[in-house]
UniProtKB/TrEMBL annotation:
Bias (Low complexity) ranges: 560-570
InterPro entries for the chain: BTB/POZ_dom, NPH3/RPT2-like, NPH3_dom, SKP1/BTB/POZ_sf
Keyword Chloroplast: no
Family, per entry: Belongs to the NPH3 family.
Domain NPH3 intervals: 181-455
Coiled-coil boundaries: none
Keyword presence, Ion transport: no
Stretch list, region Disordered: 462-499, 551-589
Pfam families, sorted: BTB, NPH3
Protein name (Swiss-Prot/TrEMBL): NPH3 domain-containing protein
Lineage: Eukaryota, Viridiplantae, Streptophyta, Embryophyta, Tracheophyta
PROSITE patterns: NPH3
Keywords annotated in UniProt: Ubl conjugation pathway
Highest taxon of source: Eukaryota
Length: 589
């Protein structure tokens, strides 16, 4: 007889085939007498190669089966109905024995067989080969690591306690420990649909922790998504990789913190680039917001969508911070272990302190973008304004960078951006830089100088009340009502950028101020008379600085003569008023 399988002709004998295949018996019986010696088989699973294996078995020839061809042979045998009822020890029975005794007991063979099932659907599914493979792989991945005796692929670094290099080993040569995620890399060979089913099966067994599942998803995405670690490749199949990212998001463990924030942000970047659905993006943003304190500045540098003028997607970061604020207000403070180890001194507000520092660094980076609008910078800064943090140095650097890259902004805009910063929280180094910074409004320079003086004299309780109204109005919380002697035009002058003479005067006086501050460190060894003299000198220096500022502005015609004389009167009064009070405080201490 002639059997046509696709484009291949097989010249065979009837008796060996019909004795083992019920389907061939039916096909031969159904053909008419004229063509009784030729039959056509077009839809056999596995094609001519699988049929050849079955034909050889019928002839009693030795058949070589392995992980690559066993599923095709099993499906072809099913198609040909090679059951035990036709003949004992038929092909279906023998293949099932081989699968159960060899293939499903092997880790790597089970993965190879699972890969071959995809081209043989729906036969492989109906014959439960797929489900047996899934159960075999998941059971091995869930087994105690001490019982892992088969080979596996592992090219990543092990932690010290797992690779035998930990000090606790004390030179004793013990067998290397099997890492918990030993199975992760081998599964990266699977296509995403089969990989999804394997991970779901592993989760169902409930013996693998969420952090290992998270590591598996991270490794798979790095392997299967081109450019995932540095930015998704432009020339890829968008439909294919969009499905991959959406599946990975769906598979993320429900436990909080088991997947790194860096991995989640890279997933979000890929989801935006591949135009994934809103559901996936919102889920990623929710998870990232919960772990935002873990993020780094580079993680947040997500490129803006095509057509946007800015370099980075600032709106996305704004949304993440707002989501973090909402989440923080609804949950107990600091429930992540990493916060306790990274910032124990911050107490219950540790997460907010870390996010504030993160956003300060982010603002400094995006400030370099010449197309970044002031409102986006300020809005992001205002979102974290309520977060208490010990230093505003990072925020000052960001503001200074923005002013440097955007020299054309107006006085009101400079005033608005500088309001984000609390001068009282600048370090001595930042204060020194700010006082000499020609990009800052003069109002801010005076505030910085005043608080540096307050810090140097350690008398912040009453110093502000002793200042004249025109100066007190410049300080945070100052009453503008007390400085009505200063005209509106003068108010604008204080918001202007200081002149070269102003900066020069401040430089000289600040040097004197710093010398006086250094001397105060040895007050414990001074006599009471020397303490009083030092205190008076500091008060005099502060008064001279304000006097020079006003005198400089008078020389440039920036304020009226009446305003200048009133202000000078106030400064002189400050000199006579504040010095005795400071002397009394120092003599009592």
């Amino acid at each position: 007889m002639v059997v046509n399988v696709g484009d291949v002709k097989f010249y065979l004998h009837k008796f060996p085939l019909l004795s083992k295949s019920a389907r061939l018996q039916k096909l031969v019986a159904a053909t008419n007498d004229a063509n009784g010696d030729e039959i056509h088989i077009q839809d056999i699973p596995g094609g001519p190669a699988a049929f050849e294996v079955c034909a050889k078995f019928c002839y009693g020839m030795t058949v070589t089966l392995n992980a690559y061809n066993v599923v095709a042979a099993r499906c072809a045998a099913e198609y040909l109905e090679m059951y035990e009822t036709i003949e004992k020890g038929n092909l279906i029975y023998k293949i099932d024995v081989f699968l159960n005794s060899s293939i499903f007991r092997s880790w790597k063979d089970s993965i190879i067989v699972l890969q071959t099932t995809k081209s043989l659907l729906p036969w492989s599914e109906e014959l439960k080969v797929v489900s047996h493979c899934l159960d075999s792989i998941a059971s091995k991945a869930s087994i105690d690591t001490s019982k892992v005796e088969w080979s596996y692929t592992y090219n990543r670094k092990k932690i010290a306690s797992e690779n035998g290099n930990s000090p606790q080993w004390n030179d004793a040569r013990k067998p290397q420990m099997v890492p918990k995620d030993w199975w992760v890399e081998d599964l990266c060979e699977l296509p995403i649909d089969l990989y999804k089913r394997v991970i779901v099966t592993i989760k169902t067994k409930g013996r693998v922790s969420g952090d290992v599942i998270g590591e598996a998803l991270n490794a798979y995405t790095l392997r299967r998504l081109p450019g995932f670690s540095k930015g998704v490749n432009q020339n890829i199949d968008f439909v294919k990789y969009r499905s991959l990212v959406e599946t990975i998001v769906w598979l993320l463990p429900i436990e909080k913190g088991v997947v790194s924030c860096s991995f989640l942000l890279r997933l979000l970047r890929a989801a935006i680039f591949l135009d994934c659905g809103e559901t996936e993006r919102n889920e990623l943003m929710r998870r990232i917001a919960q772990q935002l304190p873990e993020a780094t500045m580079n993680d947040l540098l997500i490129r803006a969508p095509p057509g946007e003028a800015t370099v980075y997607d600032v709106d996305m970061v704004q949304n993440l911070v707002e989501e973090f604020v909402t989440h923080s207000s609804q949950t107990e403070p600091v429930d992540n272990e990493f916060l306790g180890s990274r910032s124990p001194k911050f107490g219950p507000d540790a997460s907010k302190v870390l996010v504030a520092k993160l956003i300060d660094c982010y603002l400094a980076e995006i400030a370099r973008d010449p197309n970044l609008h002031l409102s986006k910078f300020v809005n992001l800064g205002e979102t974290i304004a309520s977060f208490s943090r010990p230093s505003h140095d990072g925020l000052y650097r960001a503001i200074d960078m923005y002013l440097k890259e955007h020299p054309g902004i107006s006085k009101s805009e400079r005033k608005r951006i500088c309001k984000l910063m609390d001068c009282r929280k600048l370090s001595a180094e930042a204060c020194m830089h700010a006082v000499q910074n020609e990009r800052l409004p003069l109002r801010v320079v005076v505030q910085v100088l005043f608080f540096e003086q307050v810090r140097a004299t350690a008398s912040a309780e009453n110093s502000t009340s002793d200042l004249p109204g025109s100066i007190r109005a410049l300080l945070p919380g100052g009453s503008h009502g007390s400085s009505r002697s200063t005209t509106t035009n003068t108010e604008e002058d204080w918001d202007s950028v200081p002149t070269a003479d102003d900066i020069k005067a401040l430089k000289g006086e600040l040097a004197t101020l710093r010398l006086g501050s250094n001397d105060s460190g040895n007050e414990a060894a001074k006599s009471d008379v020397e303490k009083v003299a030092a205190s008076r000198m500091k008060g005099l220096v502060m008064s001279k600085i304000f006097s020079k500022l006003w005198s400089s502005k008078e020389r440039h015609g920036e304020i009226s003569s009446s305003d200048t004389s009133d202000s000078h009167g106030s400064v002189n009064a400050e000199e006579t008023k504040s010095t005795p009070s400071r002397s009394r405080r120092h003599s009592l201490s």
